[in-house]
Every structure is written in structure tokens, then in C-alpha cells.
Amino acid sequence: MTATSAQIDALEEKKTESPEVKSKTWGKRLARILFRVSVSLVVLIFFAQLIWKFSGSNQWELVLEQDGIKVYSLKTPGTEVVQFKAIGKIHSTLAGVVAWMKNPETCKVQGCTESYEVERVGELLQYNYFQYDFSPFGKRDFVIRSQFYQNPNTKEVLLTVAAVADKVPPKEGFLRVTDMNNKWRLTPLDNGQLEVEIENNLDFGGFAPMAAFNLKRPKSMYHILTHLQGWTERYQNAKFDFIKEKSSNSTASLTEANSVP
Known about the structure:
- By secondary structure, the protein is an alpha+beta fold.
- It has five helices and eleven strands; from the N terminus they run ααβββαββββββββαα.
- It has two domains: 2-53; 61-259, 2-Layer Sandwich (Alpha-D-Glucose-1,6-Bisphosphate, Chain A, domain 4), CATH 3.30.530.
- Helices cover 35% and strands 31% of the residues.
């Protein structure tokens, strides 16, 4: 009986140590490890997102300064959206920049894939539609209301851009952006210059890593202000009844500035 029991124990030990059994054992251990790591990552991301959401100073903070252009960010506690503001100077007439803004095709220099005017209600109000492809994070489309106003005393022009998602029926394959409140402020200076201030406040919605978008937006706003003068050159003869230039020599100063090599 003793010999038989020893033989049985030896056989059981050999079975336990067989490659097939070892492989199954390590497979189970690896699965448990991966499961624990996955759960830990989910918990870590959740708390990191929670901390990020309730962080922020609620103050404009300088994040980029280059070539006379300053870009600021503002994070309000309790929201995941970061606002951005860029300030720079260009040589242009007020009407030239306004005409560029009114053309829905101008969004293509910023990467949109389709754009058109939905409705125009006089010179001060219009609605536009445009699309962007943010692959691999999906496609977005926008329907915006653009409202212009000029201060009769300072000649400053304010453009407010807001999302009006229901103005156009949804389009298949696109997620409609519903939270957007941007501003452009054009302040006329001397010698045909304008101070251009852009405020960017929008939520792309859907499955979008806001951190990735936030990293790109300061450079994107810097790019706009460094190219805006060139983009608006073809519109310098534009005229609008509601736009009054600061002085009659603005166009002459612009021509002189553009002629400098």
C-alpha cells in the first residue's frame, strides 16, 4: 500500500509540473494581473479627471508669447472646458477683416472640410455651417450664429459666434457641436493697425480627449493671428454701411505696410 501511494503521489506531481498545466496556471495568473492593472487604470483616470475638473484659478494665465502675440488660458473649477484668448496686431481695415469673417469659405484655411452660408439677416447677422474631421476622434459639424456690432464712439467691432445646433438638421456621420461661445474683438489703432482679440470657448463633445485639443489650441490661435493679415489682403476694398473706419488714412497706411519688403 505504501509503495502504491508513493507511486500515485509521484504521478500527481508529474501531472502538476507538465508544460500544459504550467501554461494554464501562468495564463490564469496573467489574466488576474491584467484585470487588476485595468481596474487600477480606470480608477486612476477617474480620479485624475475628477481632480482636473475641479482645478483651475478662474483667471487668464499666459501660456504662449511669440512674435508680439500673446495667448492666454482660463480654467474654471467645475468644468472640463478650457477657454483660450489670443491678442495680436495686424495692418488691415476693419471692413477687410469683417468681410473675411463673413465668407464661410475662409474656414478652409483652418482645416474645415465643408462650409456654406445657411442664412443672412442683413449685414449684422448671419448663420453658417461647416464640418471638421478630427479622426481618430470622430467628425464634428457646426451651425453658428455670427452677430456683428460696432461701438459708434471707439469704432471697436465685436463679433460673437454662438452654436445654434437646431438651425440645420443633423447629418449622418457627424456629431453636432452644441456648446460654443466665441468672440472676436477688433480695436482700431494708429497707422492703420488693428488689435485683434480672439476668445475661444467651446466643447467639442462626444469622446474627445480635451487634453489633446487643449494642447493644440494655443498654437492654432497663434497661427490664425500670424496669417490673418495675409488672409484679409484681398478684402481691403470691402465696404459695409455699419462699419466706420477710425480714420481716412487707414487704407493708405495698410498699403504702405504691405509694400515694405
